[in-house]
Structures are given as structure tokens and as C-alpha cells.
Predict the structure.
Amino acid sequence: MMSVQLVILCILSSSLAKPLLFDQPRWFWSWRDTSEEKGEYYEGDMILSSKQITDLRKRTGLVNTQYRWPNNTVPYQLSSEFTQSEADFIRTSLNRVEEVSCLKFISRNSFHNDFISVTRENSGCFSKVGFQGGVQQLNFAPHKLGEGCFRNGTIIHEFLHALGFFHMQSAADRDDYVTIVWDNISLDHRKNFKKYNDTVITHFGVDYDYDSVMHYPRNAFSINDKDTIIPRDPDAEIGQRVRISSGDIERLNKMYECDCGK
Ligand SMILES: [Zn+2]
């Protein structure tokens, strides 16, 4: 059953051609957190299967529906190492995704063979991308609530990877919206700024979204603390990890074909 809130959000998000205005002070985005850059994974925090890497070469990939969770339902199991307040914090972020979409996150039981195992290892925050089948790891390293991996936006960011999303600036049309400053990125990390043909990843018809919780911050993977990504719109801010954006909501609902009453 679809909530009234979902209908309203669907309508709101589809009627917004531009990203939402920001209601947080500027300093918020200048603060840099590198928790998502810690792992030596694909683009920092994504673990791709060998098939996904092959698919990327073949230019298919996450447009492919095999990476979507069946029945829009994601069973997950939290490690017993999480404190109660950490577990509650994660659940609050998942509740937010449920409120604005038709996705459901349920506690894994013994009948679920395919599920996300949420771990608390000291190795940054990272996730596999899309439904993999079997047990797939998603990690939040311990941090104070509200910091590092334990920001609502970062928790949603990692779960959006698990639902099948890449980073915003990987989009085929990103050069129309941002400039990548290659000189400020180490050779090792330049692969993290690759863009993909839209047969691989898609916006699902939604405009490029500076406000996306999946967008890297201005100085992601910087070797000198100078900007590595500069928005072409001088008023745009990127890299927020506060909340799921209206564009994120719209893309998620389109990917999972949530019924927006249309
Ligand atoms: Zn990421």
C-alpha cells in the first residue's frame, strides 16, 4: 500500500527540474570527510563483481535489471558489534528511504539466502553495487553518531549503492555540469572519476543532480586539498551527506518502478 507521503514526494520530485535549494550553511559542505575514500575499492567505496566489471566493459551494467532487489525488498542483518544507538541510527536512515519509495528493508531471517550483511569493520564505509545474490557485505566503520560513516546521508549513500546506484559524477553527461581537475588527483585515483555511457548507468530521465547524496564532494581524492570537481553552476554545492535529494528519490522510484500514482 502506497503512503500519501510517497505520492506527494513523487509528485514533488518529478516537478522539480532543478536541485532543491540548500537549507544548510555553506560551511557544511566545505567540511571534508574521507570515510568513503578510505577503501581501495572501485571509486573508493564500491565493490564490483567480476561480472559487473565485464558488463561495464560491454557497456551494459546497472541499467540491467538483474541487479535490482526482487520484490523491492532488501533483507539485511546488522552485525552484533553495532551498539544499540548505532543500530537505531542506521534504521532511522532506512526508514527515510522507505518513506519516499516502495523499497522495504526487512530483518533477515533463516529463509533469506540473499541479504546484506552490515558489518562494523574499521575500514571505512563501502558497499557492493546492486543485488548480487547470496550474502553481500556493506560496511560502516565505527564513528561518533553524525560523523564519518554515521551520517544519515552516508548511510543512505551506501545503501543506494547496494540498491544499484553509481556515483552521480560518473554520469555520461557530467562534463556538461562539472569540470574534473585532473592535476589535483593522484594517478592512482584518476580511475575513480571515470564516466560511463548511458547504456551502463542511467539517470532514468532525471536531470543531473548536484544535490545528490551520491555526488562526490569538491575535493574528493585531492592530493593537495584543492578542488577536484568544480560545478559549472557557480551557485551549486556538491557532496552533501545530510539527506536523500529529491533527484535521488525520483531516480530510485524510477529504477524500482515504484507506483507514483501515474
Ligand atoms: Zn560511494
